[in-house]
Specification:
The complex is a heterodimer of chains A (about 160) and B (about 150). Chain A has about 160 residues and is mostly helical. Chain A contains eight helices and four strands; from the N terminus they run ββααββαααααα. Chain A is about 45% helix and about 10% strand. Classes of the chains: A mainly alpha (about 160), B alpha+beta (about 150).
């Protein structure tokens, strides 16, 4: 099995398999040749499919992370949204911004990106997360407590393997 | 957290005059201007819920985007409506900004410090200091709609 990596075709390790709590791709990335720069690793995108050894032979597990194009579009839209709503408190106005709505339209592939922003700066992607996933892991008593709401979503993301 | 500098803020608030420095606090998504006016840095205050449970905190009913809802919320903190934005010893004042689109729609709040200077948290942006309430008036926040005051003794 091989994967496209930064324009290079590289063999995937034999023991590669998908586990919900552990991302084998990241481990595999760490084992890549040192000739590939960290920057290139970061910029690279993967779409790989494997037949995990621990699953039934007929079950095929696919993991599709955000593509380069999705990452680029997400960061561009997110920056536009931040710039336009930075000084606003009105949540409705903030989440109804066209860039925010387009990000929701990008779907589940960008969940790791949203969760990363929530984890890093408690950015208000909660409405988008709920719209995309249909879930709400936030305790009702935590209404208004942005750090606690962020923690709830990050924990949710970890449990489902969207982030480490 | 990211920092923001005066020139970026002045693009949106051309009347703003800096006080003492040209760089304010870091950006913070944990609280907003209403929370800052209420001296709460742990919650994002807003009366209108986007769904059932979201980042908005509001101290009771009514949960609607009206001046009355804001006055009632700050009434719970001991504030009453007053006419005079000028500094008075022994009192803390807050100002509610609103934009007119049909009815007046609240947009922002500022709080007066014991030295008479006003302080504002600009959305998810920085906490800033401004000499007058007019500094932030304009297309972003509209104009000051109500001044509220509470006795520091209470």
């Amino acid at each position: 099995m091989k994967a496209l990596f930064g324009g290079l075709i590289l063999p995937l390790p034999e023991d590669l398999c998908w586990e919900p709590q552990r991302d084998p791709l990241l481990d595999w990335m760490r084992k890549l040749p040192s000739s590939i720069s960290e920057n290139e690793k970061e910029k690279s995108c993967f779409v790989f499919t494997t037949r995990p050894k621990r699953f039934a032979p007929t079950s095929r597990v696919s993991f599709v992370g955000p593509t380069c194009e999705q990452k680029e579009l997400f960061h561009r839209l997110a920056e536009q949204w931040r710039r336009d709503v930075m000084f606003l408190s009105d949540t409705i106005e903030r989440v109804m911004h066209p860039a925010y709505q387009r990000i929701i339209g990008m779907g589940a592939g960008i969940l790791p990106l949203l969760l990363h922003e929530v984890a890093e700066r408690h950015e208000h992607w909660f409405w988008a997360l709920e719209s995309i996933t249909g879930e709400d892991p936030v305790n009702p008593e935590d209404s208004g407590d942005v750090p606690q709401i962020s923690r709830a979503w990050v924990e949710w993301g970890r449990q489902r393997g969207h982030i480490r | 957290m990211t920092s923001i500098y005066l020139p970026e803020v002045k693009k949106f608030f051309p009347n703003l005059q800096p006080i003492a420095c040209d760089k304010w606090s870091d950006l913070c998504n944990d609280y907003n201007c209403i929370a800052w006016a209420a001296e709460d840095t742990l919650n994002w205050w807003w009366p209108v819920l986007t769904r059932n449970v979201k980042p908005e905190y509001w101290p009771g009913e009514p949960r609607e985007l009206t001046i009355s809802a804001f006055v009632q919320a700050f009434d719970k903190l001991g504030y009453i409506v007053c006419d005079d934005p000028n500094f008075e010893t022994g009192f803390t004042k807050v100002a509610l900004y609103a934009k007119t689109s049909g009815q007046k729609k609240p947009t922002h709040m500022a709080r007066q410090l014991p030295n008479g200077v006003w302080t504002s948290k600009l959305g998810q942006g920085p906490d800033i200091f401004h000499r007058t309430l007019e500094c932030l008036e304009g297309s972003m926040y509209g104009t000051v709609a109500v001044i509220l005051s509470k006795s520091n003794a209470s």
